[in-house]
Write the structure tokens for this entry.
Amino acid sequence: MADLRWPGDHRAGDHLTDAELIRDMLRVEEAWLAALVRAGVAPALAIVDDLESVVGAIDPQDIAVQAEAGGNPVIPLLGLVRDRLADDHPEAGRWLHRGLTSQDTLDTAIVLGLHRCVGSVLELIDDQVSALTGLAEHHRSTVMAGRTLTQHAVPITFGLKAAQWLHGILDARDDLRDARDRLPAQFGGAAGTLAGPSLLLQLTDGAGDAVSLARVAADRLGLPWSPPWHTSRAPITRVSDALTRATDAWGRLARDVLVLARPEIAELAEPAEAGRGGSSTMPHKVNPILSVLIRRAALTAPGHAAQLHLAATESVDERADGAWHTEWSTIATLGRHTVTAAAQTAELLAGLHVDTGRMTRLVESAGSILLAEQRSLAGFVGAAGDDFDPTHYLGSSDAIIDAILERARSGGSR
Amino acid sequence: MADLRWPGDHRAGDHLTDAELIRDMLRVEEAWLAALVRAGVAPALAIVDDLESVVGAIDPQDIAVQAEAGGNPVIPLLGLVRDRLADDHPEAGRWLHRGLTSQDTLDTAIVLGLHRCVGSVLELIDDQVSALTGLAEHHRSTVMAGRTLTQHAVPITFGLKAAQWLHGILDARDDLRDARDRLPAQFGGAAGTLAGPSLLLQLTDGAGDAVSLARVAADRLGLPWSPPWHTSRAPITRVSDALTRATDAWGRLARDVLVLARPEIAELAEPAEAGRGGSSTMPHKVNPILSVLIRRAALTAPGHAAQLHLAATESVDERADGAWHTEWSTIATLGRHTVTAAAQTAELLAGLHVDTGRMTRLVESAGSILLAEQRSLAGFVGAAGDDFDPTHYLGSSDAIIDAILERARSGGSR
Amino acid sequence: MADLRWPGDHRAGDHLTDAELIRDMLRVEEAWLAALVRAGVAPALAIVDDLESVVGAIDPQDIAVQAEAGGNPVIPLLGLVRDRLADDHPEAGRWLHRGLTSQDTLDTAIVLGLHRCVGSVLELIDDQVSALTGLAEHHRSTVMAGRTLTQHAVPITFGLKAAQWLHGILDARDDLRDARDRLPAQFGGAAGTLAGPSLLLQLTDGAGDAVSLARVAADRLGLPWSPPWHTSRAPITRVSDALTRATDAWGRLARDVLVLARPEIAELAEPAEAGRGGSSTMPHKVNPILSVLIRRAALTAPGHAAQLHLAATESVDERADGAWHTEWSTIATLGRHTVTAAAQTAELLAGLHVDTGRMTRLVESAGSILLAEQRSLAGFVGAAGDDFDPTHYLGSSDAIIDAILERARSGGSR
Amino acid sequence: MADLRWPGDHRAGDHLTDAELIRDMLRVEEAWLAALVRAGVAPALAIVDDLESVVGAIDPQDIAVQAEAGGNPVIPLLGLVRDRLADDHPEAGRWLHRGLTSQDTLDTAIVLGLHRCVGSVLELIDDQVSALTGLAEHHRSTVMAGRTLTQHAVPITFGLKAAQWLHGILDARDDLRDARDRLPAQFGGAAGTLAGPSLLLQLTDGAGDAVSLARVAADRLGLPWSPPWHTSRAPITRVSDALTRATDAWGRLARDVLVLARPEIAELAEPAEAGRGGSSTMPHKVNPILSVLIRRAALTAPGHAAQLHLAATESVDERADGAWHTEWSTIATLGRHTVTAAAQTAELLAGLHVDTGRMTRLVESAGSILLAEQRSLAGFVGAAGDDFDPTHYLGSSDAIIDAILERARSGGSR
């Protein structure tokens, strides 16, 4: 499922699609059933090894349409699943979802999808880090004009610029790892007390308490347990902030590419690929379309993240009256857009064309401006003015590149 | 196509779906072809009466995937259409899109979709206005507690509250009508000069100039002409601001319903319908789910509108480097959500249950508080305190209701 | 009072400052007192001709600190004013604010400030329209490269670019005029019923009803009457949307200037002024600082407007529980920033330096690319290829300029 | 300096005021001077022990007005400081700011202010944690109605609700500590290469390199060093995201208080204080004004945070063309509002009145609804229905409270 209005969206693959959400909800129910059985609450017959294949194909549209009545897709999904289990797996059908509430299923399913989504982003970031490490090393001595407020400033190297791009990406990597690792399962029952599963344990002489039941189910899903967070939405905002930190970093480098690939500057060019960057009417056009699409994602991510903070703060009562409902679509859109932009950025960086000749020629022609600060400082300390050369006015560029590369190598640990 | 993550989305029908966007792009191309023929630029054989059926089924997914290369769906769509026209309509295939640029096709197609979308919202607003007019009239004398900063204030009537809800909707109606009527076709060519069509007219001795050509095409689509607005995006922001003004009004009334339908207050209740408002675990639950879903839309619309303003201000050069690309998905999401919320609001208002008994009993029990201002003012002017009755402390409620109803009746003309 | 963190803020003068807000609140109270007297409710002695000077200097800080207790600045202001009136104007002190509520005073005072603020913006827009009209006329034949997605496209004229800038500003002018003219006084009393003033009229045998009283007070302030809009916030969002439409238009042109003033392009330059655009360390720097500051305002306005829409939709009950309180600071910040940006844009446009030589040289050097579409279309119709000249490939630029200039001259009336 | 439009702003004290920003800029310059002297670059005479007192009073308004020319307040501040140092501290005047750029001074000054601001928030969070720990413990067995989607759900305890409030605050505490500890000094020179200080070291045979110079200056300011982050703005967005996570948590609990303090529910009440919560016309009113003001902050914080992400992603070149300029005012506003809301939340929680009688009576009257899930589950497993008591249907509430309290006690370590 690609979004016609978001070119490149197919790069996100089946991350956070409707079909995947349904699969994730089934996984959550399956894990919960298994936990009920293991605790001796439900009979062994209630276990279903592969709920998804047992249940068979589900039309997301049917679920979507029926979702309005209860305000979420869990209720119609459960109805359909119970119907399909009735004949061959009656105990599974009977015990399905017992002790849970819709929010448990939906939140945990969203967490599963986000976990994979952030994982994909992190893999693509590894590719970016690798490409940028190479660019920073390779262009350590490639002098180019530094630009501030659009005007020529002092010389820098392209290696330093690449290292600065990397700097931002490493900041995002830290936060993405942290946010992913802190994505917990949600098992709280109707109002976050786990009263339902506790009662079931009590009435069936089950083993352990409801928290241990929840831990078992979380563990099966590969997620940490946490106190119910039905109204404490930091796990969601932490991910959305981290995803936005990533698009911040990519959008910034894309904007640099968009400037430096302007024909009057032409110091950088996007990797060439047949058919890419074309126009519907101008045959000569080779637009820097990867950067355009990356920047597009970066311009929209902050709004999505803000929306999720608003949802967090409007989480009134033991389940919010509308705020929760805004999260599902927002985080899925942000997640898909981020994977897409991650892939586009990785491709951009892997094939970025650096025209060192153009960089050098500009530095030569703009030399006197680029050295104005140097002359001024030399004059200030009364030094003779005979060594004015942009390649000698690069300060600690090397040391700064090294510091950033070291951080990249050390895995960004803090 | 309903969105699993946005329950109720199916109410938006095929508004602003991928399939509809493709149809609208075909309509734009068809209108342009017809204008080229009418001006004598293209031969009569280039005309195709019903481009959509001639071209046949198009898989939006194919177009979506190919859209990445050029950064928009027009280029792959044209390729596919030309292929399909090649055998039976070679002249149409040859002349397709000549003189246009991708932005012309996509912007005008989006405008066509928005035009219908706003039209649907306006029809549903007519239903809302009708329902609210009835409520305001019927409950003109239904006294209830006014509440400010959550606390009891002075008496109001439910008719006045309904009229105030209406007040906000009439503000939105004005703006929606205005925004819809000012949605122009976009025909500017590669950089907004109409140079392509001008050249074609000149080389083929066609009739008229490129502006008249554009007017003809716009007219066929039922849209006004405007100077190209490829970088002046007020037509889009005007619609998104107006849609947001509508969700502002509905969200506010939904939040009132959510408060007044709390079991401790219970002065209002949503229209009952079997299965609606249910829970996956609590059999007794009847949640005010229409209001929850309406409020959800209202919480997200402002962010979408802000995104479109950001796109407008980032419209650099003669076509923006990413900002334009953020518009398509944002306005479509906002448009669909608004139609959905419009329908839900119309349904909510048509069946809203008003418990006048609860209102009366609260006014009686809270009487002394609700009359504190009255006593204070009476004391201030030294009046005897023997007529303290909430039903006598309603001020100009009737006149205010009348003023708002009059505005509703007069069509909200300004 | 200039904002150290918003350079150029002093251009907004005393618009929407704390001191001005206090003055406006006093004007509202004075108008209401006068209306009470005219209706025979309050004695003639209650009238105060110039409440501001009678009351004397007021320290906004004192009011600000005391404002927390009641959540708004009206309550402490009234306390202070009553104290100061006690000796010499006891009747005025006694009758002050009778029948009003804090929101009446504060909303109407904010409206007064916004009315002047939008007026200032409109005056500065007149200057902008004048400058742009001149640029569009003067550079009607100044050919330059059109750029799309950052790359050279087809030729345009700088006159057309100026006209397109104007196009966006005229859209904003329409909306600003409309929004200003629809800014009403707020007089609704404790919960929007005007019960307080109605009671006073009744107990004192005053003339007319409370609506006519409100109309008299509104009229004294030069504002239209409206049904109370304490919970229907379109008057505020209409202004903020219109202000944002203005910053959209200015931000877009500022971003164009920032691109075209890059040293590698250098087709435009900001008006020179001694000391402007300097750096703290690079003596040669002349940064395009007006454009930088204008763009800054444009990047922030959409967020402010979204905030006000959120406040509108959260206007629960008869006075909101926090949403209303977010409006005051948001609209004032947006208003001041907009005046500042309006002045900076007017200055930028009045002195914009257009380097027609650079434009011409680029068109010559990039000629073959700029004419790729022309060649392609000519080849398509089999025309001989001997008239490929950028100055002959400008299409309807003149007609489009004329259409926009005509709109400017006709006052943008709709 | 309190903000008249943001009641309670005085609680933020002198955090992030204009005057404090000026002091912080002076501190940065002083630290840099000291580092230059220590490295042997500048003569010992260039050191000034207390630059702030040497320079004397500075009118922020003067600086603000002059800030427009260069687009930031550093340039005029340096001019003024140099003037004042000229006579008595000529060497300090000569060496002031040598090797730095405006962004170094301004970014580091903002970091200093943010560091203190977050520190204050964390202290107030300690108070909140203490109050909530007490509430969670004390009301561990206070049964009340759980509410989902505004309707009664299953029983909870008020202790659990308090623990959930705490849960969100602990999430924020983690992030605030982390963000504060990662706020680095900014020392990069004109374009992030430290070329200026490197040259000065070289020409004066100074000790060490420019990075060690920067480390010394950072150390004097109590800040960690980092590679220059002039275009990698994670240090800012990390703080703003964390501040927003805090307002998310407070806004959510304030919204709970606003619901539960409604007169029809009245299970909670704000701490009483003479004069607080009053109305300008209704003498009986006691509005929950702390919660109103806290919620206000929470509704606006997400927009500010989004603005800072936008600035981050627009950080083009080696200094951005407008985006950087949006940060100063945005982060200061967000910072002040957060301190204010932190203080209000601490006060609210310290004196929150819990009406356990009301809670109990509601649970009794709504018992059958609150136990619907329990009956349903008991029926499901065929259990006899004789122990239906809300106080026996609290599931793992105690264990969940304990888990959250344990996290609070362990210092929120991760």
Remarks:
- Chain A has a mean pLDDT of 96.
- The first helix of chain A runs from residue 18 to 38.
- The two ends of chain A are 38 Å apart (CA to CA).
